[in-house]
TrEMBL record:
Zn(2+) binds at residues 81, 83, 251, 325. One of its GO terms (molecular function) is imidazolonepropionase activity. Its main location: cytoplasm. It is an enzyme of class 3 (hydrolase). Keywords: Cytoplasm, Histidine metabolism, Hydrolase, Iron, Metal-binding, Zinc. CDD domains: Imidazolone-5PH (cd01296). Catalyzes the hydrolytic cleavage of the carbon-nitrogen bond in imidazolone-5-propanoate to yield N-formimidoyl-L-glutamate. It is the third step in the universal histidine degradation pathway. It catalyses: 4-imidazolone-5-propanoate + H2O = N-formimidoyl-L-glutamate. This is Imidazolonepropionase. It comes from Pectinatus haikarae. Residues 74-412 form the Amidohydrolase-related domain.
Amino acid sequence: MNRLLIKNLAEIATPLGKTALRGKAMNDIKIYKNGAIYCEDGIIKLAGTAEEVLPQLSSGTAVKEIDAHGKCAVPGFVDPHTHFLFGGTRADEFIARLEGVPYMDLLKRGGGIVSTMRQTRVMSEENMYSAGKKILENMLKQGFTTIEGKSGYGLDKNTELKMLRTMKRLQKDLPITLKTTFLGAHAVPPEFAGRSNEFIDFTIEQVFPEIQKEKLAEFCDVFCEKGVFSIAESQKLLLAAKETGMKAKIHADEIVSTGGGGLAADIGAVSADHLLAVTDEDIKKLAGSNTAAVLLPMTAFCMRKQFAPARQMIDTGCIVALASDFNPGSCYSYAAPLILALAVINMHLTINEALTAITLNAAAAVDEADTSGSIEPGKKADILLLSKSDYRFLVYLTGINIVEHVIKNGEIIF
Ligand code: NIG
Ligand code: FE
């Protein structure tokens, strides 16, 4: 048996529970001073103060020990929204956007997602694997122990399947919980220009069966946006996806409000993501549902947009989670310290709410709240040891990565 004891922790800071926290409860972070955590075979068995934990350990058993004097432990971060697999980069578009060209204009001109599509279609599976591996390893250094990845840069059957199969390989090979999402409806490919409806039918009829056969994706996502896929098209796609066993996610109300947030709540989606332009009515719908509102502050920041109304969402009772949205277009970053800083400084979350949003609630947004996102018995031993003794330094030491050690499934990765 693999036993690990982390002792002498200045503090443990964690949300608690096996389901997402909403509203005021997001602020309820449990703090254990002089903490200790004991794990067996990758699972947390005991967590609390040294006085609570240490007497329960039987002496004489071989235990690997970490003396975490002066350090603080928080749960491994969860990133529930990334597009980490892609060919090429788009620095020119980044500069053009800074000079005032709107994101949707670039897409309409055959740039944006379609430009990455062209570069991803010609990428070999080996190159895709090694590029993805490097990115995931770097994300692990930021503290992300669970990561969601989307397809969506193939927009044809072969490349979409290639992306999902590559993720399956990465899932096996890396010490990361990788959750796969099929985002075949990320944009209308040139082959279907002006025929988005037919592209949705093609996706349901031709691609879904392959995904189902090989169990390639747990979730299905869609870019529900004016000029991309309508509410009706998104609903048709996601209801069909649910029939094949995939859970729904939606890129909703990112640029203009089309009712994507409300649709997510109506169809019982696991998450509605972006929500910069969500209406008050749809915030209420989300608050009355179990759909997580996944907010992507770095995307709003990079696109110079108003942040999603996070305060209003939490105060209304929504399940709010945070994610990077890492992709080569709207947000070429997976910097966890920046996500946390923007959430607290610009979106007015408390530090406790932000910690819940990037751990337990982010886990709920990928249907992993029962296994990850908190430090408590029964959860995976996914633990970050911070170089500071106070978890508030995650934001106070602004933009700096203070993750010193990452423990994944009870193994010290670095
Ligand atoms: O979540 N908005 C749609 N999809 C991504 C951007 C993808 C890209 O520009 O390559 C997003 O922001
Ligand atoms: Fe996205």
